[in-house]
Amino acid sequence: MARLIFRNARLFDGRSDRCESAMNVLVEGDRIQQVSSAPIIADGATVIDVGGRTLMPGMIDAHVHAFFSDISVQKVEQFGESYRTAHAARMLGHALKCGFTTVRDTGGGNYGLARALADGLIQGPRFFYSGKVLSMTGGHGEIRDIWERPRYESICSCAGTVFSALGVIADGIYDCVKATREELRQGAHFIKIMGSGGVASPTDPIWMNQYREDEIRAIVNECVERRTYATAHCHPAAAVRRCVEFGVRCIEHGTLMDAETADFVADRGAYVVPTLIILEQLVELGRKMGFPPQNQQKAEAAWSGAIEGLRHMRAAGVKVCFGTDLLGDLYKHQCREITLRSEVFTAIEILHQLTSIPAEMMMLEGQIGCISEGAFADLLVVDGDPLQDVSLLAADGAYLRTILRNGELIKHVD
């Protein structure tokens, strides 16, 4: 088993608000075995002298879509599985080079891609996925335009469920439970539902609440029985509140959060994964990239309230995670989300959003997003102090001297 010793590190463990100087960390295989202020000696170990630089956990992007190869949901479907997979390999490789050692795919990711990453067929971060997103007919998971008639085949002859590459249409308790069980059967780490209208879908207004209470509670119950959780796509405050009230653990986006709803979310201990960068980029580049006018209008409406929503979350003490939601070629802007959050949050708050908070949300506390004995060996050596200057992490990996993922050296500069 390979051994690595990181010596003389200024250590940020992902959980605290400060760094410890002159620390040493022993990695054996894929795990951290020892964290100590005293010198560590291990036979056959390779020693990396950090030289007083910052050693921190690998970053977590808690909202990606690896297979979303275009900003048009129709094109994603039309280009086919091979094209989507090639895009995923490129996007995930970029994420790892930027220091994201874990990503959470919130719609479309599957066992095949997770296995390819685990087996080293492609290089990328640790990969957790929800499988296909669950949506009601006419909801945010629909890719059919207003003039189109139903055209998808059923999953089986006994069910009315229809599906695309990224989502499942399921209506009523029976179909919602069946679709949830099917995604969990295929290895989904959690389940995502569409709890409100969205930007990229063609027919639903963004203010629209989606799924009935009984449908949401049925899905949540299936997740609880599997010892996992449900998350919900929500933009408006009304959708956020009802989804949290009905048992959803996490909210994706939460863009139009108001103060009252933020207080409610915080009191319930739910999590939110804001995704500012996708909205900024769609507002700036959507028209040039062929984003339909009706979708462009929704993007602009969501972006207009996004920063204010963050301020409400911060004031209420909501547990906020880092996420990006970038589509197609926009994946290159992943690190800019850090810059956008700096308008509202401090450097240490953003660092927690990148590490320990999403780990806790994903039910992986103590395994990822931290430097502690027994955790996975996902580590970064930063040339500088990100607790004082978080922009060091927003430079597409330029200030990362070392990237360690699962005990494997991805990058190392002496």
From TrEMBL:
All copies of domain Amidohydrolase-related, residue ranges: 54-404
Q: Which InterPro entries match?
A: Amidohydro-rel, Metal-dep_hydrolase_composite, Metal_Hydrolase, Metallo-dep_Hydrolase, OTAase-like
Keyword annotations = Hydrolase
Its protein name is: Amidohydrolase
Keyword Membrane in record: no
According to the lineage, what is the superkingdom? Bacteria
Q: Gene3D superfamilies under this entry?
A: Metal-dependent hydrolases, Urease, subunit C, domain 1
Keyword Mitochondrion found: no
GO MF entries: hydrolase activity, acting on carbon-nitrogen (but not peptide) bonds
